[in-house]
Amino acid sequence: MPDTRDRREYNKKFRETHKEYFIAYERNRPNKVERLAKAREWGKLNKEWRKHYNDAYREANLERLRAFDRARHAARHEYRLAYFRKLKAEVIREYGSLCKCCGEDTFEFMSIDHINNDGARHREEAKCGGGSTFYLWLKRNKFPKDNFQLLCFNCNYAKHRYGICPHQRVLGAEVSA
User: Fold this and answer.
1) Model pTM?
2) Number of domains, the chain
3) Closest CA to 104 of 148, 150, 147
4) Domain membership flag for residue 177
5) Is residue 27 part of a domain?
6) Domain span at residue 42?
7) pLDDT in tens, 33-89
8) Which residues pair with residue 110 across a beta bridge?
9) Of the residues 70, 85, 106, which one is the last residue of a structural domain?
């Protein structure tokens, strides 16, 4: 294989000796916007052919495509895990890093609680689901503090299931913002 420097020199000399060809090519070549518009138009006119071609390609290359997906799955999975772990850490940091009820600070135990126990209604209205999609919603909305607080899973579950966390029953106070 030729050295990269040699290849660059060769390409430079080739362009210099064939300058007229490159000038004519660029002059007659349609610009990118026109090319893309033509490609889109062709695609609209030839939907059936494209569908047949894509189906035939998938069928002929199914094993190769599956192998590629398997090879990339682990890397994509690791990337997603790292991204959402970082997102959760950012959300927890914004909400104080400690459980409002018991003071727990273990990262893996932390969760966001809806103070007014209206989480189901909020998830339905905001269409944000739970877990990482909820954390994304919080971030996009600049971490609102009016209806959310940080609780550990135990306190959050107890508040949901029994109406009050056992820690608060002992202390005689409600968990609130």
Assistant:
1) 0.58
2) 2
3) 150
4) no
5) yes
6) 4-70
7) 888 898 899 989 999 999 999 999 999 999 999 999 988 998 899 999 999 999 999
8) 152
9) 70
